[in-house]
Fold these 3 entries.
Entry 1:
Amino acid sequence: MGSRASTLLREEEIEEIKKETGFSHSQITRLYSRFTSLDKGENGTLSREDFQRIPELAINPLGDRIINAFFPEGEDQVNFRGFMQTLAHFRPIEDNEKSKNPTASEPLNSRTNKLLFAFRLYDLDRDDKISRDELLQVLEKVDVEQKMSIRFLH
């Protein structure tokens, strides 16, 4: 699978993704290998169902919201570049990244972009507001997960 991943991803694509996301060459090729292993349809995209097969997301009380973050409104598939752009929000913040090139746009993993990303996880109807109901939905999911964990431990 690793050889398949490296042959289908062109060097210029890797360089573009490096610039956009801040991931290293080796991180990109490893994530591409993971992406292709999740791509059960073998069509170069992932569906929501592909994400739901990831055990860590399946048990996460916010898993459905995390999965939704990978899909632009109205889309039901995500390609590798979109996958990487979303994952870039989870990269650690490196304060010196912006100072390397002051004319560059703000990195996807900047504090501002991380906050916007987290906000969108809660703003289900995408009206740029987190309503009381949206917040309660999250709190209820987390509360149910905690209760299930406590029962499991006893």
Entry 2:
Amino acid sequence: MDTETITTPDAGVAMESKEDTEAFTMVKSKKTQKRKREQDGADMDTEAPVASKRPQFPPISSDKLKGADEMRKVAVPAHRYTPLKENWMKIFTPIVENLQLQVRFNLKTRHVEIKTCKDTKDIGSLTKASDFVRAFILGFNVEDSLALLRLDELFLESFDVTDVKPLKGDHLSRAIGRIAGKGGKTKFTIENVTKTRIVLAETKVHI
């Protein structure tokens, strides 16, 4: 007796699903592949470490560090020619002997020219010397200006009275007179309390 194979609908569906699962291949996500590549790269780095050598540079001499000679120029107004001539040696000596700089007064351009040379050790000496000469040109005494060479925390500041409050005519004159005081008494008091030196030149105030 022949036996017939009876296929039910459920059995057909089961066979098709089995074939689909056999034909389906698992696809790895991009994140998984990237993570695996990073792990492989890390393993390679640990297996064969690359010896990183720090570059060695020869020391630079002080002459090359300074570069070319630099120059600063300070303009001298006409009313400061006589005081500059009288106190020239007091200005010349500390700049040349202490700071190892070169200085001269150019009669044609009417400027005090300060220049570095091969004997200059500190690069910042040029700035100190120019501030020292500029302070004297603004009206400070040589002794007060010398403090700019000895102390690093000192600096010059200039402003106009009209920068604080716009005044004209008699109102401006009265404001300047209030800063100076009778016989300069108010100015001296401000200088002693604030440990500064003040020069009043018309509407300009130099501190």
Entry 3:
Amino acid sequence: ALTKSISALGAMGMRMKHTLPDLPYDYNALEPYISADIMKLHHSKHHQTYVNNLNVAEEKLAEAMEKKDVNKIIQLQAAIRFNGGGHLNHSIFWETLSPQGGGEPQDGALKDLILEEFVTFDALKKALTEASVGVQGSGWGWLGYDKAAHSLRVVTCANQDPLLATTGLYPLFGIDVWEHAYYLQYKNVRPDYVNAIWHIIDWKSVTERFKAAL
């Protein structure tokens, strides 16, 4: 019976492996704001590496838990946080960009809350841009939703720390400011890259994320 249970768990683990999500557009679709070369490298190499490493870490975690190896379980948390965060963050990033993006939310509760908290859309744009540009080293700038307070917050996370697990805020939209997200095209001029992102934000997708958070 024990052998069957372990086999069942193993089969479940195989079914639950994380996979790289398909992009909802071609690699060249976001040009001229993000080049096809960057998109291909960022998605097929960097994001894929996070997925691969997350699967490996989770397999090791399952083994450690089976053996009740508490030291190993603790040791694996950093790899799961980093690679799991990388997978979560990039999955949100791809789905909230669009070649038909840009502009600002046109109607609905998200637009109302933006105006209530920031007064103007440009004030939100300025706050998130400055926060993202100001990240020291690698990380993300986020527009997050605080469900308890029913408020929007602009925050940053270091490295690949996932917003929800790190802050309790629901991630609506994030700007990846790791150099691999822009260096091939923008070199070390991060502000130009962050400003370009506003032309391809898919506010329809961001609004759907906000509705889900509610």
